[in-house]
Amino acid sequence: MPDKKSGKPGAPVEVVTVDRSATTRRPNSPRMAGASVHVSLAGEIGLRIVRGDYPPGTILPNEAKWSQVFEVSRSAVREAIKMLMAKGLLSSRPKIGSWVEPKERWNLLDRDVLGWYAASPDRESFLRAVQELRHMIEPEATALAAERRTEEQMNAISQALHDMEQATSLQQRTESDARFHIAILRASGNDLLVPLGVLIESALNHLFAHVTREEDNLRYALKLHENIEKSIRLQRPATARNAVRKALANTDQLIARWSR
Questions:
Q1: What is the pTM of this model?
Q2: Phi, psi (5° rounding) for residue 253?
Q3: Sequence-ordered alpha helix ranges (H) in 234-260
Q4: I want to staple 183 with a disulfide (CB 3.0 to 4.6 A). Which of 107, 144, 156, 217 is the partner?
């Protein structure tokens, strides 16, 4: 891989042999057309990278090959590669091409990367990793919200809870659920926590898209969220912290049940 400091090629990048299907357009793949063709192409290539078709260190097919496979212009390929480079998945050098970066350089807080990660065969591992992070962060963030929240922020939390109660579909319920937790992160008063809302939103969307939630569980989950909202509203940090831990434990059980 090229030496990034000097900009000169260093040791050769190991070329990993990839299954032929990885560079073949699937028959049922939508034809890419329109102004956002490069976005669609970036999504297709990004998904293949995240699911492991192209392991780190792999040199990707060149522009001509991608152009042929997906029946798009080379300029669309170039724009797609630029998008993936901006997300940390790829690096590129003239006369060498584009290669897959190590996973630790991927921007896992990017909404697209999260979507590809959660749609990969390893999505159960992804959801468990997100839950571990939530256990580390959300209880303390919620305790801070109970101490620091403004009236406006409290209204946003309460409104999200109300929307959860009034939701008529699982999608509406999930969207309100994510908005509830994101509003709490904002109310914590720590700006560094806010970007984690994208991670939580993605995890909830992909979890509940694959898990059938029984009515009893929905009522129980709603009660847990009501306890969180009440604790923040009454500005009781310790109670808020414990309430979130109970809600996270309930989500852990859903993931465990789904993975059986």
A1: 0.73
A2: -65, -35
A3: 237-259
A4: 156
